[in-house]
Amino acid sequence: MALLDITIIPLDGRDSGFSPFVAGLQELLAQSACSYRLHDMGTTVEGSASELFRLAALLHEHAFGPGVQRVYTVMKIDDRRDRTVHLGDKTASVQARSAGA
Amino acid sequence: MALLDITIIPLDGRDSGFSPFVAGLQELLAQSACSYRLHDMGTTVEGSASELFRLAALLHEHAFGPGVQRVYTVMKIDDRRDRTVHLGDKTASVQARSAGA
Amino acid sequence: MALLDITIIPLDGRDSGFSPFVAGLQELLAQSACSYRLHDMGTTVEGSASELFRLAALLHEHAFGPGVQRVYTVMKIDDRRDRTVHLGDKTASVQARSAGA
Amino acid sequence: MALLDITIIPLDGRDSGFSPFVAGLQELLAQSACSYRLHDMGTTVEGSASELFRLAALLHEHAFGPGVQRVYTVMKIDDRRDRTVHLGDKTASVQARSAGA
Questions:
Q1: Measured between CA atoms, how close is A40 to chain C, in angstroms?
Q2: Which label site among C46, C88, D55, D74 has the fewest CB atoms less than 10 Å from its CB?
Q3: Looking at beta carbons, which residues of chain B come within 8 Å of C69?
């Protein structure tokens, strides 16, 4: 099992933020068979490497919506064949801190 | 304000996973003035660009512990000067799904 | 047309460098229909997005050779649909400088 | 010695390409003490980790020119303390292939 971290940036001059765009990607992810988790700088997806590359291609393609002629996608894949890795495993002992805490 | 996403990989042949190593980095982050959040594929930190580059250098350096002669660090910085961005803003409407749900 | 930048890191404890491994990947690239260029920190490949994701999956899979149980792959894709982009276009006016110059 | 690979993307809605912007960064690099090499998807710089993080911060800051309120920077650093690594070492046996060859 592998984890994919993907960030998709539509370079179309929008200056109103990416939120509506990200919502569309989340729908595609929800329709996939993979577990996923949105974080502050991207989305992490759990699956086999072949599933993850196919899904990444789909998400990237989806970003070419109306008026979008250029898309920049950044990905990292951490793929272990020696043991099963799931979303949340690495952060089981997470120590987050909010600005005011 | 900017958000930094950083993943630090010690290339020292350890095959027992990165967890103890990540715990050490979390301590350094806790000592910094920046808010941060560990996720499945890295850590996201909130601060000014200059703070974030300094902190990244510190974390990277720290990874050269006993027996570690090579470190590979991957970073993304999303820096907006037109408005304030905080950790959690992008994921306020997060839709995560667990494998069995 | 799109450009893919890919770096594949086998996390198997080898400390003798990645050169033989990279040579293997170059052979796979040479067999593909895509133009490519090796640089100091990865390989850049030119093709359609769908070709590039398929090729990336192939290269990633190939990295699981004898004794390699974990592979970490980092990718960037710059995909323009408004005009054709080729390898070398961006660096036509390259200004490189060697250490001693 | 370490190698830094850096890609700086001004998210300001420009649709005329990044070339003039990249030229400005190249000037900054030429003024630094570091060797560097522009490639199709970024620039690779050679130096100590501390030099490279300082230079990355400088380049990132420089990208906030007139009208640019958001900058997205992607970096990879491969840092070896067991031996000296220079630009060009990894590609000494480069096998590039052009589209028509």
A1: 19
A2: C88
A3: 15
